[in-house]
Amino acid sequence: METLHAERLWTPGGWRIDAGFTHDAGRIVECEGAQPSEGAAWVLPGIANLHSHAFQRAMAGLAERQTHPQDSFWTWRETMYRFAARFDPDTLHAVASQLYAEMLEAGYTTVCEFHYLHHSPDGRPYTDRAAMSQALIAAARDTGIRMTLLPVLYMRGGFDGRAVT
User: What residues does each domain of the chain span?
Assistant: First the structure.
C-alpha cells in the first residue's frame, strides 16, 4: 500500500481538496488529510470504454476518407469486413494488446469488447471455437485491463433481413 497526495480527489461524497489517499494495487482504500507534495494531481476513478471493437484499431487510416462519391457507411462496412476476415488469433492478440495498452495510458481501466470475429481467414470455424475470444482475453490479461467480453451473433446480413453470407 502507498499513500499519495492529490490536489483534488473525487470520492463518492464529492471533491476533496488537498487530500491524501492510500491505495492498494490501484484501489483507493482510505482518504485522509495530507501535506501537499510535488507532482500532486487531480485523481479520478478509472473510465470504462463501453463499446470496443479491438480489431478496428488496426484499420486506423484505412477508411477515413471518402475516395468515391458513392462511399457511405455501407462501403466502409464492406471494407471493414474484408479487413477483419484476415485476422487470426495471433494477429487479434497483437492488435488488441496494443489497443488495450493505449486505453490504459489514456485512463481507461475497463473495456467492454464487442466480439464478432469467430472464423479463420479461410472462413471456417477454428477447431477451438473460442480461439479468437481467448486471444482477446489473453490480450486483456497481458496488459492488465479489466474486460467484459460481449460475444456477438449476427442473424441477418442487413436491415432488409437478408441472410448472413
Answer: 2-43, 47-151
CATH number of the structural domain 2-43: 2.30.40.10
SS3 25: coil
**1-38 burial, b if ≥16 CB within 10 A, otherwise e?**
eeebbbeebeeeeeebeebbbeeeeeebeeeeebeeee
- Residue 90: how many other CB atoms lie within 10 Å: 10
What angle in degrees, to the nearest 10, is found between the helix axes of 131-143 and 89-105?
Answer: 30
Q: Looking at the chain, how many residues does it have?
A: 165
Q: How far apart are CA 152 and CA 54, in angstroms?
A: 14
| Amino acid letter, residue 10 | W
Q: How many helices (H) and strands (E) does the chain have?
A: 3, 7
Regarding pTM above 0.90, the answer is: no
| CB contact at 8 A, 87 and 55 | yes
What confidence score (pLDDT) does residue 36 get? 60
Arch. (CATH architecture) of 47-151: Alpha-Beta Barrel (3.20)
